[in-house]
Structures are given as C-alpha cells and as structure tokens.
Amino acid sequence: MRRALLPAATALLVLTACGGEATYTGASEESGGSGEGGGSALSCEEPPEAPGDVTTYAQSDLPEPVPADPATLTATLETNCGDIGLELYAADAPQTVASFEFLAQEGYWEDSACHRLTTSGISVLQCGDPTGTGSGNPGYGYGIENAPEDGLYPPGTLAMARTQDPESNGGQFFIVYDDTQLPVEGGGYSIFGRVTSGLEIVEAVAEAGTASGGGDGAPAQPISLLSVNVDG
To answer: Which of 8, 105, 157, 193 has its CA at 20 to 30 Å from residue 33's CA atom?
Structure first.
C-alpha cells in the first residue's frame, strides 16, 4: 500500500526520469536558521539511477528509541540539488529518530528519488522510498509520535508519511515547504524534526511543479537522496 499523507489517497505515483542539469529560481536568496527562508537559484546534477536492490528488514530489526539526552540531533540530506540540513527531535520522537538514524547508517536511502510533490491543498515533498513507487517500506513499522493536535504543519517541518494504519511509520518522510494542514483522524503524522538549512531547495523544486502538471505527482525537477547522515 502506498504511503500517503492523506488517508483517502490511493493512486500510485509513477516516477518520471529526467536527466541533465536544470536551473530554477525560487523566491529569495537565503534561508533562515528556522528553516523558513525563501528560495534561491537551484542547480541540480543529473539524478542517479534508482537502486537495483532494496534492503528490507524484519520487525525485530526496529531499533530501540534513542535517549532523550541530547534532546536533538543534527542530520544532512545530501541531494543532487544540494544539501538540506536537519534538526531531529530525539526527545519528542525517540522511536522515529532511532529508525531514521538506523536507516541512514544502513545506507537505505542511497540514490533514492523523492517521488512525490504536492502543490495543491498541501505543500510537501515526499521522499524515503528507494523503489520510487510510493509503496516501499523498510519491512518494519511503528506508531505515531509528536503529531500536532491541530493538524498544522509549518514550513520546514520534517514528518513521517504512513498508510491508514497508525503503526505503519517506516522509511518514507516528507518536508513541508508552505503552511499545511493535514487530517488528525487516525492520529495525524509524526513530526520528528525541522529543516535548518536548504529549505530553498525544496521551494525551488516545488516552484518547478510536477512532471504531469497536476497538483500531486512526481517532481518535474528530479531530486534524489544521494546519502543521509546523522550526527550527534
């Protein structure tokens, strides 16, 4: 089943490949430390080929929640369009951060495409599925943590995608690039961090729109995770 932001979403996205280098211009030149800055000129390298083999894990491989001290960790998403810096909320979402750190160390996301961009109704870029289909998962699942009761997700929010099953959090996550409200029925969506630098990359990808021209689909400007690194 596809990992969706909205429980009603059932369509499967088809990743559209596009090689070469493209440049898109965002709204402003710098991003602030809060992850709420505007966009800048974006230059992307040709995205890598999707992984041929995707590793899956057993439920028993789910790592133990991280300690609450330190309360936050730092991480970097290295993409073909530049680096995106993250702050991870270890104290507020210990299981989610533990899984994110584990998958990063395993190289689970290496060369995987961000397969879904939404530009109508909700404003997110969804990544974390090495298969590029929107239905891939690491083989284990876990529950919701730190979901906002009001369903409000501000720009720069880093949160988990899931199916209708509240225990289906796994490897797919999304970055919010504009104020977004998501359903709270079923428990909402786990917020486990925020963008601290590089939000302008996501904004510029969003400005380029989807490959289909619709409000929900594969990004017209392909963006892939080359590597994910978590620091203390």
So the answer is: 105
